[in-house]
Amino acid sequence: MRLPLIVCLSAALASCGDELSEAERAERDRAVVERVREVNEAAPPLVEVVPEPILYPDMEAHDLFGLACSYAPGTSMGARVIAREADAFVKLDGDVIRFAADPGSRELPAKSRSLYNGREYSLRLDIIEKEAEAETETGVAFFEGTVWLRDRWDRVIYQGTGAVNCGA
Fold it and tell me: What beta strand segments (E) does the chain contain?
């Protein structure tokens, strides 16, 4: 019976000396909330990625045939991005990732778009149309283009410039 009384008296005495006014308590709570907000909004370290070539088996598995623009960096012939009217595809870490076209973005050749959005990344495309080579008898046009891949914090994690061929 004595122990509960001692515990209650100790707790009462401990709380007497740390009495905060309403303004002090509000300021302390505001500071804690601000620290939590800063921690939650902080972006993790930047992780750059390099898209892998989209190979024929990938194209078959995702039905990537038809009217589209294919982007290949530098002098490579392996497409790293395939952009179509409604979607675009990039291969990262062995997985082909689908992006949805932003219908409000600028239309590029082959009905592709300049902006595509995914769950973890966004994709921006640019084609320099004035330097296009003449279309061949197959209906494919060749351009120079740039691709930007951004993470969900809108940081560029990949940028590549190279050949773009658009057509069926």
Answer: 68-73, 81-83, 87-92, 95-101, 115-117, 122-133, 141-150, 156-167
Structure token digits, residue 157: 């994690």
> 10 Å Cβ neighbour count for 123?
27
SS3 state of residue 95: strand
Written as six digits, the tokens of 66 are: 């038809």
Q: Is the pLDDT of residue 157 over 80?
A: yes
At 43-76, the pLDDT tens digits run 888 888 999 999 999 999 999 999 999 999 887 7
Q: Helices (H) and strands (E) in the chain — how many of each?
A: 3, 8
3-state secondary structure of 128: strand
Q: If pLDDT is split at 50, 70 and 90, which confidence band does 9 have?
A: very low
**Sequence-distant (≥ 6) Cβ neighbours of residue 145 within 8 angstroms:** 69, 71, 125, 126, 127, 128, 161, 162, 163, 164
